[in-house]
Amino acid sequence: MKNIKLIFTSMLFLLIAFSCDDDGGTSNIGAIEGATPNINKVATSDQGINIVALQNGGDVNLGLTLQVATGDITSMDVVAFFTKNGVVSKATLQANVTTFPAQLKYTKAELIKAFPAFASFGLNDKLVISADVKTKDGTVLKMIADNGQPLYGADVANSTLWKVVQTYTALCPLNDASLFNGNYKVTADTWEDYAPGDIVPVVYNLANGKYVFRILNTANPYVINSSTSYIIGTINPATNTVTVTSNEPWNYGPGAVYTVTGTGNVSSCTGDINLKIRFSGSAEYTLNLVKAN
Asked: Which H helix or E strand runs over 6?
């Protein structure tokens, strides 16, 4: 399986080299057409929904910036989608925004007015904020359908230049990384060391750092140094984001030794771990884990 990956990686590099030489031709395939917003969370505002504070009568402070990413946009409606018990509801939080960049702020009262059930935000609930955009010729483009399904493609979803949606999930106070300890079940691994359902050990030890956990390689059937190599995940407790490194290169055999880096996020309520990992600067590969016990 690793040999197949090496061949694919080589082919990918060749494809990239070819595309870069083809100005205005195939290198433009998949370019985003139409118009798109750029929505980003303000770093000093809530990055998730603190359900403990919400239950104790605390307020919510969702701060975002809204800008034009692509297209000749004249106005935008800020829209939100609230998912509770699998049911999606849509509401317009702010209509006809015409000045960009715009600073947006939403409180608990405003969100409850839009979604009365928001007052009882639960562990599995989700709030997604996006925008319906109107272009100069009067065309209205939605990033998300009224039923909550995305209408944009992979090129938009994977863009590092802009974000067309921002998602808020349950956030619980995180005093350390002790929640991230024990056996975890793999739900996705696009690098394909593991199959869905495989069990991976995750270890928390205060001596390694208050907000640090390790994902061990001891269950990895492909890494030669599986007994000594592991992922180091360092959590930013203010945002629940994770920075990923490895303690040593992962050895898959001759010509296949990789340094491991990445980013991701964790759920401070459920203990879920969602990572985007690079192998020696490769494209990002997804590794998602949920607690098995």
From this structure: helix 2-20
Cα distance between residue 141 and residue 128, in whole Å: 17
Is pLDDT at 27 greater than 70 in this prediction? no
pLDDT of residue 12: 43
Characterize 146-156 residue by residue with b for buried, 16 or more Cβ atoms within 10 angstroms of its Cβ, and e for exposed.
eeeeeebeeeb
Report whether 125 contacts 170 (CB < 8 A): yes
Q: In the predicted model, what is the mean pLDDT of residues 228-253?
A: 95
Q: Give the pLDDT confidence of 68-125 residue by residue, as tens digits.
A: 999 999 999 999 999 999 899 999 999 999 999 999 999 999 999 999 999 999 988 9
Rounded to 5°, angle at Cα 121 from 148 and 76: 40
User: Residue 283 and residue 31: Cα distance in Å, rounded?
Assistant: 18
The rounded distance, in Å, linking the Cα atoms of 64 and 288 is 27
Sign of CA dihedral 145, 149, 153, 155: positive
